[in-house]
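User: When convenient, might I ask for sequence and C-alpha cells for a protein?

AI:
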Amino acid sequence: MKRTLIYTVLSQSDGIRLESFLMGMCGFSRRIIRELKQRREDIQRNGAHIRMVDPVFEGDRIVAVLRDTKTTTSSSSIFVPVLYEDDDLVIYNKPPFLAVHPAKRHQTDTLANVYAATHPEGTFRPVYRLDRDTDGICVCAKNTLSAAKLAGKIEKKYTGIVCGVLPEDSGTIDAPIAQLAAHQMRRGVREDGQRAVTLYQVLKRVPGFTLLSLVLPTGRTHQIRTHLAHIGHPLVGDTMYGAAHTFLKRQALSCTEVRFMHPMTGNPVELCINMHKDLALLVHSE
C-alpha cells in the first residue's frame, strides 16, 4: 500500500534544503527521510529525482511516496463498524471483548485481524490502545507520517460507570501510577510511579452508581481503572480492581469522543458516539 503526497514550496521555504522542508513544513520524521533516500523514484521535484541536500525553491512541486509493508497478520471476518475512513485514517467503533493487538490467547480475533481483512497491503497502526473489555472509538493511521503526526495529539473523552455515589460534581485525581509486579498488568498508585492525572465530571447519579465523563491529560496503562479504584469508586464490573457485577461482565468504560487535527489536511476532526448499550442499560435500569 502506498500514499502519494504532493506539496508546493511556498515563499518562506525558498532556498532551504529538501530535508529541512520535509521535516519542518511537512512533519516528516528522520525515519521517513531515511526510507525515501533509499528509493530515488519516490522523492521528486517537478518530475525529476531530488536529493535531500538539494535546495527547493518557491513554486517547486514536491512529490513523496510513502510505502507500507504487506501485513503478515491473518485476516478476520469479525464485523467492526467504521466511523470514518480516508487515505490516511480509519476509525473504528471497537466493541467490548475485542483485543486491539494479537496476543498469546488472541491470534485471529483482534482489531488487527479485522484491519488486515480490508487492508492486506498495509500495516496496522492504532494511535492509542483500548483495553480488550473497553469499547469505543479507536483511531488507526494508515501510514507512518499520519501515525507520527497524531501521536499524543488526540483528545479523548471516556464515559464510565463507577460503584457508589460521588458527592462532588467534578474533580481531579492526580496520583502517580506504577506497575505493582513484574510481568503483571495490574497497576496501582505508588509514590515512585509516573505522574498521572484524571479529570472527571458527574453526568448522572443513580442508586449505587455514578455515571462519569472522564478526560486524561496523561495516558498511563489502566489509568482510569487504577485512579477510580484508588478513590474508592472502581468501575462497575472491573474484577481486576475489585468491582465484580452480576450483570456486567466487563469494566463499565467506553471511549465516546475524540478530537484532533487531521494529520494531512489540518482540518479539525471530531467524533462522538453513545456509550455501549450494555452500559446504557445498566444506568437506566438501576
